[in-house]
Design goal:
- There is one protein chain.
- The protein is an alpha+beta fold and about 110 residues long.
- Strands 1-2-3 form a three-stranded antiparallel sheet.
- It has one domain: Sufe protein. Chain: A, CATH 3.90.1010.20.
- Helix content is about 45%, strand content about 25%.
- It has three helices and three strands; from the N terminus they run αβββαα.
């Protein structure tokens, strides 16, 4: 009986420790640019970081198809700021553009570390 209780206590302690203080990424303040491939060519994204938070993401240059990529170019940066990371859902119909924006933002954020 003691072995069973000890085993349960050990499993509970390991579970609590695993869910504990997870280390967050820390960013240096500043503006960083990143590039990645989009559907129509390379995309350039500017990411602004302040007080360890992503404050702004802006697509600076792109060669994407007007009309088709417009929603991704406007919405993906907003989603990244809201989520505080680049793991956001893509815009339907503009998957490659969305992925390119996310990858360019991730490239910029690696420079901020």
């Amino acid at each position: 009986m003691k072995k069973v209780l000890f085993g349960i206590a050990l499993i509970a302690a390991l579970g609590i420790a695993a869910c504990g203080n997870q280390q967050k990424s820390t960013f240096n303040d500043g503006e960083y640019t990143g590039t990645a491939a989009g559907y129509g060519g390379d995309l350039e994204v500017k990411v602004t970081v302040a007080e360890n938070k992503i404050n702004n993401v802006e697509v600076v240059t792109h060669s994407e198809t007007a009309g088709i990529s417009d929603e991704a170019i406007s919405e993906i940066p907003k989603k990244i700021v809201e989520a505080q990371n680049t793991e956001v859902d893509v815009v339907s119909g503009s998957t490659v553009t969305s992925d390119g924006i996310k990858a360019a933002a991730a490239d910029a954020l690696t420079q901020a570390k």
